[in-house]
Amino acid sequence: MDLIFYRLIDNMLQKYKEKGFSKAQIKELRKGIESDLDISKYDDINLSSEEMFDIRWKLTFEKYEEGNEDYERKKLSRNTIKTL
Q1: CB burial class (10 A; 0-12, 13-18, 19+) of residue 21?
Q2: What are 27-35's contacts with CB under 8 Å, separation 24+?
Q3: What is d(CA 6, CA 22) in angstroms, rounded to the nearest whole number?
Q4: Given 3-state DSSP classes, what are the helix, strand and coil percentages for the chain, each rounded to the nearest 5?
Q5: DSSP code for 41
Q6: Rounded to a whole number, what is the distance in angstroms from the first to the last CA of the chain?
């Protein structure tokens, strides 16, 4: 990653710093941006950094689960079981 990319991330995180997010929360938001996740799902100031960490990892696993070849088959089987 180049310096320009990090500066763009810093600019994005500036609004969270102004809102009063802690350094640990900012760190979790940064990791989410670097992982190309939708940080709007966990950018609540009332969440602790530990809760943000858990949500970030859940989103990461979901992101890569969708790329898995068996994902659609599992999704179909879950829906079939629900209808039975």
Answers
A1: buried
A2: 28/52, 28/53, 28/56, 31/56, 32/56, 32/59, 33/9, 34/1, 34/9, 35/60, 35/63
A3: 19
A4: 75, 0, 25
A5: G
A6: 49
Q: How does pLDDT run across 45-67, given as a tens digit for each residue? A: 899 999 999 999 998 888 877 66
> CA gyration radius for the chain?
17
Question: Which region holds residue 49: left if phi is over 0, alpha if psi is between -120 and 50, else beta?
Answer: alpha
Judged on CB neighbours under 10 Å (0-12, 13-18, 19+), 26 is middle
pLDDT at position 60 is 85
